[in-house]
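The authors assume throughout that readers already know how a fold can be written as discrete tokens. Each protein is reduced to its one-letter sequence and a matching series of backbone shape codes. I therefore recommend that a typical entry be quoted early in the introduction. For illustration, here is how one protein appears when written out as sequence plus structure tokens:
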Amino acid sequence: MTRTPTRILALLACAVLLLAGCSDGGDGADDGRITLRFQSLAWQDESVKANKELVREWNATHPDVRVEYVQGSWDSVHDQLLTSFEGGEAPDIIHDASDDLADFAYGGYLADLTELLPARLKSDIPQHSWETVTFGDGVYGVPFLQEPRVLIANATLLEESGVRIPTPEHPWTWAEFRQVTKELSGDGTYGVAWPLKEPVSATLNLSLSTGGKLFHRGADRKVTVRFEEGDQVVPRTVHDQVDTDRSASPTTLGSGGSDTLPGFFAGKYAMVPLGFSYRQQIEQQAPEGFDWQVLPAPAGADGLAQGVSPQTLSVAEDSPHKKEAAAFVDFLLQPDNMVRLALGDWMLPTGKQALKDPALHTTEHGWATGTAIAAHLRSAPAQSVRGYAEWKDKVATPALQEYYSGAIGMDELRHRLEEDGNLVLARYQR
């Protein structure tokens, strides 16, 4: 077919645009508009909706800086981010968790936000939350959502048993918790079901209440593992509930949290220790008439202290628009918006102003219990430990699983966590 000069010119112009990469998802160079890619790990319907609504609201009021929503997945985020960093294709704004940031921060993949964040945001989030994203002298993320572990209880079984119901002001001690689970057991019911498919973070974070620390940093900044008395209270309690008292189900030790819910609804377990956000699944899946309540985790010598690894928002070091990316993060985390994100994920905001919102202080679904615990949350023990991922996967997870199942004793557990663990960590601290 014969092409007219006009048609040829049009084709050439189109080719030039394609070569320039001026698509809707580009950097906006053709019209002067900046486009930022925001990779979100929101997965629950309410959370995805809240994130997308906030992106639309930003775009409606910031015509020169457009944000493109990119859906990520918690299941693969670490490997996916590492690939995108090394390939120079990382999103500008990155949703992750603070315990996944250390290697990315030390590796130079994340921007230091110290001078990019407004004073409002810095002062609104407590210092103990900022500690979860501080590596060396830099701040490499903004902690915005946090999730304490709580006890989800069958309210009917608790009422019938006559046990004392704990509150954040008067929680159970770990010894009292063990005794209560014995009283709740019998007639086909276990007092508690521990879902410990991933036992390390649960054990370490709950052990802050008993003075556990596990990772000790010396004057030379190197970290060593010491499994001391305070670190042993929580694992010993779980072990004794399963192996001695028969008040904890042995079959759930290899399960995830969701796996325990059918048995919980059926009255097989009186209580299940779960992350705060599991309340949404329980509300959606519980049979009609099932009465449940949220209780604080047991307290030790350090009260309700508990380690958390907050969800975070970071900016890629390779982003050419760090200032604009930080401005979008500030917009997302305005107090009202932080509340929307928290409600969407059934989690707690880190911001002090957001935590005051009346919606987070209702007794319905245990919101008030969670908010009361917020002041006791601290940086997870492993937060800044390089080599933690390998230590967890190769040493701590198998050792704790064997201990909880009764295959090894406390002395062997200590030996493996310390001796084998320190060999692993030493490779990252030379």
